[in-house]
From TrEMBL:
Keywords (A to Z) from UniProt: Apoplast, Secreted, Signal
Pfam families assigned: Dirigent
Subunit structure: Homodimer.
Function: Dirigent proteins impart stereoselectivity on the phenoxy radical-coupling reaction, yielding optically active lignans from two molecules of coniferyl alcohol in the biosynthesis of lignans, flavonolignans, and alkaloids and thus plays a central role in plant secondary metabolism.
Protein family (similarity comment): Belongs to the plant dirigent protein family.
Superkingdom per UniProt: Eukaryota
Signal peptide location: 1-28
Gene3D superfamilies found in the cross-reference section: Allene oxide cyclase-like (2.40.480.10)
Species classification: Eukaryota, Viridiplantae, Streptophyta, Embryophyta, Bryophyta
Chief subcellular location: secreted
Compartment list: Secreted, Extracellular space, Apoplast
Protein name per UniProt: Dirigent protein
Amino acid sequence: MAAKTLMMTTLVAVVSILLICMSGSVSAHTHKTHNVTFFFQESILVPNPTGLVVAGPGGDLSKLQQGVIVVVDNVITQTADPNSKPLGKFQAQYVLDGSIKYRVQATVIIDFPGDLVETTYEILGQRTSFNSTDDRTLAVVAGTGFFFGQHGYAVAHTVSQKLFGTNGAQINVQKWTLVVGK
């Protein structure tokens, strides 16, 4: 009988320890998030573009040819108005794969006035065609500077889009919301 009681006591102790460990690991993995929202005006294949075709066949984005690489350098602003308060830069490269999607590798540089610490978010993912107005979700894989160790996801939303001609020339106003935390 004593052996049976000892076994039950040991089993209860082990289950209790497991429950405590599991509750601790669950709370250790939960974290608070916050949103970082910004806008930019992206122009491709128009005068004074913010995106340039730097490699690939022919430079015709309307066909999403395999091998086309576009490099972008956009000022990010507080609102959709291009004259609103500048917050930093959105620098990226888009690699087209010949399908209706393309790969995005982006760095969002947040510029804190007077601060020399580079504060960035690194974003990776795949987006649908340049002409899509659907929301897109990408991974925020890392933060640096004041955002060190933060990660999460980004939602890109096309606020407005103007297409010109047949060569893929366009101007897009994008709203990006990053949901990030540690």
